[in-house]
Design goal:
- Pfam families: DUF6886.
- InterPro entries: DUF6886.
- Helix content is about 15%, strand content about 25%.
- By secondary structure, the protein is α+β, with helices and mostly antiparallel strands.
- It has one domain.
- Strands 9-4-3-10 form a 4-stranded mixed sheet. A 3-stranded antiparallel sheet has the order 1-5-8, with no helix packed on it.
- The termini are far apart.
Length: about 180
Amino acid sequence: MRPEPGQVLHFSEDPTITRFVPHVASSAQQREPYVWAVDHARAPDYWFPRDCPRAMTWVGPTTLDADRERIIGSGCGTRVHAIEYPWITRLLDVKLFAYRLPAAPFQPIGKPTPHAVVATEPVEPLGAPELVGDLLQLHDAAGIQLRVLDNLWEFWDAVITSTLEYSGIRLRNARPRP
């Protein structure tokens, strides 16, 4: 589930949204009102239930082979998403929808590497929301290794001190550090 050229995606468990209006999300670090969406590269970051804590890492242009081997592992591809055991049932059962939005009103946000795109004006979907479907199958088809861990923090600490690229979403919902 990725956007087509000229589109970005917004993922939601709510299939009834008819218009996206800029707002300040309760979890936002920015105080400006935005409509949030993702491009092709960042769409996999949202193949999860909304509140699911996830630690994600992938090989980038400056990744050292030693970090790739240590964290991702031999023969395990170039990208890993990790969640905790209590979230696996929710991942399997969630009904997640993708809204296709026109890309024109959106601008990248995040430095040094953008992690999303945002619009400062209302945006209407290009059609009805699409049921995303089996999230495990989506990861498999994209060649993304999905790890289920007892606790995310040891993995996260290794990732953020490596040369891999990474993103952590909803980590405040993870189990406490051991």
